[in-house]
Design a protein that fits this description.
The complex is a heterodimer of chains A (about 180) and B (about 290). In chain A, strand 1 and strand 2 form a beta hairpin. With about 180 residues, chain A is mainly α. The N and C termini of chain A lie far apart (about 60 Å). In chain A, helix 2 crosses helix 3. Chain A contains 6 helices and 3 strands, in the order ααααααβββ. Chain A has one domain. Chain A is globular. Chain B is an alpha/beta fold and about 290 residues long. Chain B has a single domain, classed as Metallo-dependent phosphatases (Purple Acid Phosphatase, chain A, domain 2, 4-Layer Sandwich), CATH 3.60.21.10. The chains are: A mainly alpha (about 180), B alpha/beta (about 290). At the A-B interface, helix 3, helix 5 and helix 6 of A face helix 3, helix 5 and helix 6 of B.
Chain lengths: ~180, ~290
C-alpha cells in the first residue's frame, strides 16, 4: 500500500461512523413487550397500594371485596386502554412464531391446549374473565417458549386461538391478540 | 303450616346426608404417632354428594383421627361469592373444621387464583407451596398444575433438593397418569415434572381432575393416585383394560384415608356408601436405595 492509499484509507475510516453492535431482533421485541408489561405492573402496584391490603389469610368477603375494588380501580386508571396496547404489531408476529415453534415439538402440548380450551369466548379489554368458565390450562412447553412475565400475578391464557394477558389478582383482561395459535 | 313444614324440611335435609351404610370399618393400623391424613378432590359443588362424603369423613374421623385434609383442586365450582365458600366448603366439613382439622388446598382449573388467600385453605397467599407434616418425616409439595411456568419449575427443583425428609409427597390438580376418558394423562406436564420427581426421590403423587378414583401401577418407582370424585362424579369413565390402572373406582364418589408410619404409607379408599374400594401399603424405598441418577 502506497502512502497516498494509506492516507485515503485512514481518512475514510475516520469519517465513517462506527457500526452499531448487531441486535437480536427477537430480543429487542421481547424487551419492548416486557417494558410495556412492566409499565402495567407499575400501574397495578400503585393502584393496589391505595386499597386496604389483602392479608395472606383472609375471609371470603374480604377477598371478594378486594378483587372487586382492584378491578374497578384498574378499569378507571386505564380507561383509555385499547386492544394491542401491549401485544403490538411486531410483537404479535414474534409471539405467533414462538407459539408455532413450541407446538411443533411433539404432540403433548398440542393435546393439552386442545383439551382444556373453552373455545372462542367474548372478551374485552379491562373486562373480567368469566368466572363461570374454567381457566384453560397452559402447557409448560408453551409457557417456556413465551416471553417470561415479570410478575406472577400476570398470566397467559388461551381461549380458542386467542391469547389473553390476564391479571389474575383482578381477574381482568389486560390485552389479547387474535390468531395467536396456529390452526 | 309453617311449623309443620320446617321440621319436615329439616328431616329431609338430615336424611340427605345421613350415613348410608351401617358397615363402615377403618382398616388402617391407626398407630400412635403416625401421620393421619384424608384426601379429597374436585369437591366444590355444594351438592348432596359433597355433603355425603363430608358426613363420611366426619364418621371416619371418629375411628381414625386424621389431623389434616389434602384438597386436590376444583375447590369451588361456579361462583366464588362468600356464600359459596360457606355452602361448598365450610358447611359440608364444619365438624372437621370445628375440631381443628386443617385443610391444605391446591388450585384446580375451576378455581379463582384468589382462593390462595382464603385462610381455611392454608395456602398463605401462595399459588404453590411446601410444608412439613406435623408428624413423621414427611414433606408435601403443592403445585399449581394449570400454570407450570419456569418460575414454578425452578422453585420446585430447589425445594425438592433442599428437602431432607425421606417422604416427599407431591399433590396437584392434573394427573400425570390417568385412564380417564374425559381427560387422560397430562403428558405435557409429565415431560417436565416426572424427571424432577425421579431425580429427587418423590415417593407419592396425588391428583384430582378426573372425577373418579384410580391407583396407577407404580411408574418409575412412584405411586400415583387420582382422587377427583369426592363430590363430582363421572360414571364409568375409566377406560377398560387400561394398562395404567392398578385399581379403579368409577361407580360412585369416594375419598381416601392415608396413614404414614416410618417407611410405610397405608391407604384406604372409601366410597360414598361406606364401602372400602381399595386398600394397600406403599413402602418407601430406603433413601440410599432410592437415589436415582
Amino acid at each position: 500500500m502506497t502512502a497516498p492509499q494509506l492516507a485515503l484509507l485512514l481518512f475514510l475510516s475516520w469519517g465513517t461512523p462506527q457500526a452499531s453492535p448487531p441486535v437480536n431482533p427477537n430480543a429487542q421485541l421481547q424487551k419492548e413487550l416486557m417494558d410495556r408489561v412492566a409499565k402495567y405492573v407499575e400501574l397495578r402496584k400503585s393502584v393496589e397500594a391505595k386499597l386496604p391490603p389483602l392479608p395472606d389469610r383472609a375471609e371470603p368477603k374480604v377477598i371478594t371485596q378486594h378483587q372487586q375494588a382492584l378491578l374497578a380501580s384498574l378499569q378507571r386508571a386505564r380507561s383509555d386502554a385499547r386492544q394491542g396496547d401491549i401485544f403490538r404489531d411486531r410483537t404479535r408476529h414474534l409471539i405467533r412464531r414462538l407459539l408455532a415453534g413450541a407446538l411443533s415439538q411433539g404432540s403433548a402440548p398440542r393435546q393439552a391446549m386442545r383439551e382444556e380450551n373453552p373455545g372462542t369466548i367474548p372478551v374485552r379489554i379491562n373486562g373480567p374473565y368469566p368466572t363461570s368458565l374454567p381457566l384453560p390450562t397452559v402447557p409448560p412447553q408453551v409457557l417456556l417458549a413465551l416471553p417470561r412475565l415479570p410478575d406472577e400475578e400476570l398470566e397467559y391464557r388461551f381461549v380458542g386461538r386467542r391469547l389473553l394477558l390476564l391479571d389474575s389478582r383482578a381477574n381482568m383482561v389486560i390485552d389479547y391478540m387474535d390468531r395467536a395459535l396456529p390452526h | 303450616m309453617r311449623v309443620r313444614v320446617r321440621p319436615l324440611l329439616l328431616l329431609v335435609g338430615a336424611l340427605a346426608v345421613a350415613p348410608l351404610s351401617a358397615a363402615f370399618e377403618v382398616r388402617l393400623p391407626n398407630k400412635v404417632g403416625s401421620l393421619r391424613v384424608a384426601v379429597i378432590g374436585d369437591t366444590g359443588t355444594g351438592s348432596k354428594s359433597q355433603y355425603e362424603i363430608g358426613a363420611r369423613l366426619i364418621e371416619a374421623r371418629e375411628a381414625f383421627p386424621f389431623e389434616m385434609v389434602l384438597m386436590l383442586g376444583d375447590n369451588m365450582y361456579g361462583g366464588e361469592r362468600p356464600q359459596d365458600f360457606l355452602n361448598k366448603f365450610e358447611k359440608p366439613y364444619k365438624p372437621l373444621l370445628d375440631a381443628g382439622v386443617k385443610f391444605y388446598a391446591t388450585l384446580g382449573n375451576h378455581d379463582d387464583r384468589e382462593q390462595r388467600f382464603y385462610k381455611l385453605f392454608n395456602m398463605n397467599g401462595e399459588l404453590y407451596y411446601t410444608y412439613k407434616a406435623p408428624k413423621q418425616d414427611v414433606r408435601f409439595f403443592v403445585l399449581e398444575s394449570s400454570y407450570m411456568d419456569r418460575k414454578q419449575l425452578d422453585w420446585l427443583e430447589q425445594q425438592l433438593q433442599r428437602s431432607g425428609e425421606p417422604w416427599k409427597i407431591v399433590y396437584m390438580h392434573h394427573p400425570l397418569y390417568s385412564s380417564g376418558q374425559a381427560h387422560g394423562s397430562s403428558t405435557s406436564l409429565r415431560e417436565l415434572l416426572e424427571p424432577l420427581f425421579i431425580k429427587n426421590n418423590v415417593s407419592v403423587v396425588f391428583a384430582g381432575h378426573e372425577h373418579f378414583y384410580e391407583r396407577i401401577k407404580p411408574q418409575n418407582g412412584i405411586a400415583y393416585f387420582t382422587e377427583g370424585g369426592s363430590a363430582k362424579f363421572r360414571d364409568g369413565n375409566i377406560r377398560d383394560q387400561s394398562p395404567l390402572t392398578a385399581k379403579g373406582f368409577d361407580t360412585d364418589n369416594s375419598f381416601m384415608l392415608v396413614e404414614i408410619d416410618g417407611d410405610q404409607l397405608h391407604f384406604q379408599t372409601i366410597s360414598r356408601t361406606g364401602d372400602t374400594v381399595d386398600e394397600r401399603v406403599v413402602t418407601r424405598p430406603k433413601a440410599e436405595q432410592s437415589t436415582r441418577p
